Amino acid sequence: MNEKIRCSWAGDTPIYVDYHDNEWGRPVHDDIKLFEMLILEGMQAGLAWITILNKRDAFREAFDGFDPYKVALYNDAKILELMANEKIIRNRRKINAAVANAKAFLKVIEEYGSFDKFIWGYVDYTPITGHREKHDDLPANTPLSDKISRDLKKMGFSFVGSTIIYSFMQATGIVNDHITECFAYKEILTG
User: Fold this and answer.
1) How many Å apart are CA 85 and CA 73, to the nearest integer?
2) What was the pLDDT predicted at 135?
3) CA distance 8 to 98
4) From CA 54, how far away is CA 31, in angstroms rounded?
5) Domains of the chain (ranges plus CATH)?
6) DSSP per-residue letters across 24-81
7) Mean of the per-residue pLDDT values of the chain
8) I need a surface site. Which of 52, 60, 126, 188 has the fewest CB within 10 A?
9) What is the share, in percent, of the chain residues with pLDDT greater than 90?
10) Residue 164 reports pLDDT greater than 90
11) What are φ and ψ of residue 179, in 5° steps?
């Protein structure tokens, strides 16, 4: 039997394996998906990613499919409704940040035409290839994630620290940080 070689963090939990195999590190250019990942990465701060994956469908339902146009209109009543939703992360600061980030996200779309165009402009629309040989080689942040984090904060985003932004970059394929022997690393390179 010919088992696929994966990044060690994928483990053998089906939801993690699926996320690793089909999403993480694969370039995302859809604004709704980019907004979803930005919000989920912020929600994950201080928690394990598996917690977010397990609650992802509930998040999608609670946050109107991560439509930034809808999330930007959330009022106090909607925030209280989200705070009462036991299926999601009920952290007021993170929920407030999601609403603020939706508003900032829409300003970026207004200025650049799309969030995709804005965020991928940092890498000239070409993913950075990490060339990591083992999981321990992965950085928590980089000078580029530091810059993007600073720029986003200036634009009114929150829960976008450099480590969160680097995770976002990895998740959305701006960076291919699969280890070099991982099957997904090779698939992404040959695109």
Assistant:
1) 18
2) 87
3) 31
4) 22
5) 27-190 (1.10.340.30)
6) TTS----HHHHHHHHHHHHHHTTS-HHHHHHHHHHHHHHTGGG-HHHHTT--HHHHHH
7) 96
8) 126
9) 96
10) yes
11) -65, 155
